[in-house]
Amino acid sequence: xxxxxxxxxxxxxxxxxxxxxxxxxxxxxxxxxxxxxxxxxxxxxxxxxxxxxxxxxxxxxxxxxxxxxxxxxxxxxxxxxxxxxxxxxxxxxxxxxxxxxxxxxxxxxxxxxxxxxxxxxxxxxxxxxxxxxxxxxxxxxxxxxxxxxxxxxxxxxxxxxxxxxxxxxxxxxxxxxxxx
Length: 180
Prior knowledge:
Number of domains: 1
Helix content: under 10%
Largest sheet: 7 strands, antiparallel
Radius of gyration: 15 Å
Number of helices: 1
Number of strands: 12
Structural class: mainly beta
Oligomer: single chain
Shape: globular
């Protein structure tokens, strides 16, 4: 398993991005996002509340699962997301937004209030074993940033080229209320 740490890019991307997955490219074309760097992963300890249901994918009948470890403290800034049962060596991106109602999206489900928008954070490629870890640096997040007492939902959007549907899916969501 690897851990991904983010560095934020705050300028527009070029019109074309040399990536094998145009759906991920389309998500990245506008706005601020984070690029990931691999470092060794820590053992997960659960935090947050699971929301939304993960739909089956090409490698698991229960779909890819997202769990959170570390702290919900904005000061500590040690929140890490672990993802398992991903298709191997596929692109994905960590999404964040305000909690909302579950609705169908590609081959899975999202739980976001789309009014304020959904942020795109860490871009990654899953390991050959189909997992990854994503660390969130609160100081580097693009606006709007979470504040103490607010609740945000995180999920991972990923490619699933072996799927017979849209060839893209999402994990379950993790809802986190931030503390000081």
